[in-house]
Design a protein that fits this description.
By secondary structure, the protein is of the alpha+beta class. The protein is 57% helix and 16% strand. It has two helices and five strands; from the N terminus they run E-E-H-E-E-H-E. It has a three-stranded antiparallel beta sheet, with helices on one face. Strands 3-4 form a two-stranded antiparallel sheet. Strand 3 and strand 4 form a beta hairpin. Helix 1 runs antiparallel to helix 2. The radius of gyration is 19 Å and the shape is elongated.
Length: 103
């Protein structure tokens, strides 16, 4: 059985204990900040004409950039969702700590 923290609002945070909530929240924020800096670096860079895929085939750099930004955006969104769930759990712990259990 998976371990984690159960709480009133969303239900469950997989593999995060109550004592890890604050540090996990900070970690997600640090990662999102890093990902945004990476996006900004791509935007500020002078682009090459082409990029290479894993087989070495060249394709237009704008396609590569669109794919890379989409990947980074998805990771940011996943972290933002987790951060919202952690904040809900932390709020539940403040309001009714008996509704937050570990299992």
């Amino acid at each position: 059985m998976a371990w984690g923290t159960y709480y009133k609002f969303e239900g469950y945070l997989s593999r995060i204990s109550k004592s890890q909530l604050e540090s996990k929240l900070e970690e997600c924020q640090r990662i999102n900040d890093m990902l945004w800096r990476e996006i900004l670096a791509y935007m500020a860079a002078t682009p090459p004409a082409t990029a290479k895929d894993c087989e070495g085939e060249e394709y237009p750099y704008p396609e590569y950039l669109a794919m890379k930004i989409r990947e980074l955006r998805e990771e940011i969104e996943e972290n933002a969702t987790l951060m919202a769930r952690i904040n809900d759990c932390l709020e539940a712990m403040r309001e009714t700590p008996e509704n937050v259990t570990e299992g």
